[in-house]
Amino acid sequence: MTSNQPSGIRLQNVSLMLGTKQFRFDCELPAGAITAITGPSGSGKSTLLNLIAGFETPESGKVTIGSANVTALHPSQRPVSLVFQDNNLFAHLDLATNIGLGIHPSLKLSAEDGKRISGALERVGLGGYEKRKPGTLSGGERQRAAFARALVRERPVLLLDEPFAALDPGLRQSMAGLLLELHRETGNTVAIVTHDANEVRQLADHALFIDHGEITLQAEIEVFLMRRDVPGLTEFLKL
Ligand SMILES: Nc1ncnc2c1ncn2[C@@H]1O[C@H](COP(=O)(O)OP(=O)(O)OP(=O)(O)O)[C@@H](O)[C@H]1O
Q1: What would the pLDDT profile of 197-225 be if each residue is shown by its tens digit?
Q2: What is the CA(85)–ligand 1 centre distance, in A?
Q3: Which residue lies with its CA nearest to atom 28 of ligand 1?
Q4: How large is the ipTM?
Q5: Least crowded by CB within 10 Å, which of 1, 51, 83, 226?
Q6: How far apart are CA 63 and CA 26, in angstroms?
Q7: What is the CATH number of domain 1-79+158-168+188-239?
Q8: Is 39 in the pocket of ligand 1 (CB under 6 A)?
Q9: Cα-to-centroid distance, 52 and ligand 1 (Å)
């Protein structure tokens, strides 16, 4: 999350084959908005996120973030931060070090970095947790720490792959609230993969529906929630 200008994301005629599955994506995730990526299991939601993050490379087509063509860039060179369902914290490192990895993979942290880390922990409700190991935290606290790591990176794009799926419903609600607050503060471009129609209603400004590797609807949230003519969408929204 960042002081930089937020950047819109665009996939133009992107195609990719994984095993026997073909994916074709043509879409736009507006700058500064929260876009929900939805669709049935196995439809290609994580694949779309991986193409934006750079963990997958298209066979043809182009991925741009802001004005930059990032199609051939390594994940570390892209202006993105990531939060996954299983938060990816290193069990043997304390939280300050885990979060510091978001700033410098080399772990050479300055006093200034230390202040940023403490500030990010404070911001997500984990003030004073610098020396705690991930194993001593609850699932919700670990996910807050993963958000703190994304915060210190100060990147204009935040990519979330089912970040709250492992949490119980009450905690999901409070984490969704935290995400909304952080988004209001940073104005970042956010893409969130979710199975949860309530999360879409609560968080998203814009949404995509993917079916069998293709985007069958992309729309502002008010329009997305009203459409009844897209196969599978009504079932997803549990209408
Ligand atoms: N590296 C790969 N090799 C072969 N098949 C793959 C690979 N990665 C993904 N797939 C297949 O592509 C399809 C889409 O996968 P993806 O993870 O993008 O779906 P998803 O919509 O995120 O699913 P879920 O909601 O179940 O997490 C799945 O059938 C998956 O098995």
Answers
A1: 999 999 999 999 999 999 999 999 999 99
A2: 16
A3: 42
A4: 0.97
A5: 226
A6: 10
A7: 3.40.50.300
A8: yes
A9: 15
